[in-house]
Amino acid sequence: MDTLGEDLVLLSIRPDNGTIATKSRLGYGLRGSELVRLAATGRVGITGDRIVVLDGQPTGDEQLDAALASLAGARRPPRPKTWVGHPGSQIVDTYLARLAATGAIRPERGTVLAFVPVVRWRIADSARAADARARLDAIARATGPVDTAQAAFAGLASSSGLGPVLYPGWANRQLRRRLERIAKGELTQDAGAAATVQATRATDAAARAAVQSATDAATQAATDAATAAATQAATHAAVSAAVHAAHHAASDGGHGGHGGGGGGGHH
Fold first, then answer.
1. Helix, strand, or coil here: 31?
2. pLDDT tens digit sequence for 110-141
3. Which long-range contacts (CB under 8 A, 24 or more apart) does 139-147 make?
4. Residue range 70-100, pLDDT digits in tens
5. Where does residue 108 rank: exposed (0-12), middle (13-18), buried (19+ CB within 10 A)?
6. How many whole angstroms separate alpha carbon 245 and alpha carbon 153?
7. Which candidate in 24, 85, 250, 264 could, as Cys together with 245 as Cys, close a disulfide (CB 3.0–4.6 Å)?
8. What is the DSSP string of 120-139?
9. How far apart are CA 175 and CA 133, in angstroms?
10. Cα dihedral value 215, 218, 219, 220, nearest 10
């Protein structure tokens, strides 16, 4: 999940003209991706519809650490809808800069109407962009439930408005519908089932290992199960919040969605 946010940005760049196809909604998806990643690293969890910081240690990722700091510095643990709904006005530009710094994209500066400056983005690492698209295509074209990582990717892609962009037209309506269903949490593998799988793996590991090794394996598996459950809860909360924020912004005519900076969410 480390590249979740960057993958969303790559998929949002229109290859024909270098513009960001869904910039008005992309910020919500990026903020949601940060919530998912923080949960996946055990930094936060969802308790009583609040984002609770479990471990304030830095992750080593500058953007993710800024998100963690905003949560840790809140007067009260924020609700996912509030936090994801206020990603800050610069979040998309920050991720574009990250991708440019790694050579995945490059900016092309020019003007429109002879004097208005514009920046268009070109994909420089076509293999990386193609991999992101192939992974989303595989999820969209599959049948049956999705795991947590797939739910995060496809759900946030849908909430970012990428469904009609990547799968336009009547012929692709079922693919868009599947992404929408994933975003609503209708196709996600049950968290209890995921925890059961982890517990089973712990039992198998214990049976094969010596006493101390079995203890270590079981402890690790239990930790993995708890992290998986927390990540799934955060994924559902993040995607739901991003969908809510996008719809709210659309009903407000696109005003106010990205404001509020990093720390918004005391309500």
1. helix
2. 887 778 888 999 999 999 999 999 999 999 99
3. 139/178, 139/179, 139/182, 140/167, 140/175, 140/178, 140/179, 141/175, 144/187, 145/187, 145/188, 145/189, 146/182, 146/187, 146/188, 146/189, 147/188, 147/189, 147/194
4. 999 999 999 999 999 999 889 999 999 999 9
5. exposed
6. 17
7. 85
8. EEEES-HHHHHHHHHHHHHH
9. 13
10. 120
CA angle 224, 73, 244 (to 5 degrees): 70
CA–CA distance, 107 with 18 (Å, rounded to integer): 9
**Residue 103 corresponds to which tokens in the numbers above?**
């050579």
Q: Which of 25, 72, 58 is nearest to 257 (CA)?
A: 25
Handedness of CA 65, 70, 73, 79 (dihedral sign): negative
Q: Which amino acid is at 136?
A: L
Q: Rounded to 5, what percent of the chain is helix, strand, coil?
A: 60, 10, 30
Which residues have CB under 8 Å from 215's CB, separation 6+? 206
Residues 6 or more apart in contact with residue 193 via CB below 8 angstroms: none
Strand ranges inside the chain, DSSP E: 44-47, 50-53, 105-112, 116-123
Size of the chain in residues:
267
Going by C-alpha positions, the residue among 220, 190, 188, 228 that lies closest to residue 204 is: 220
pLDDT in tens, 191-233: 445 444 544 444 444 444 444 434 344 455 655 666 677 788 8
Q: What is the pLDDT of residue 178?
A: 97
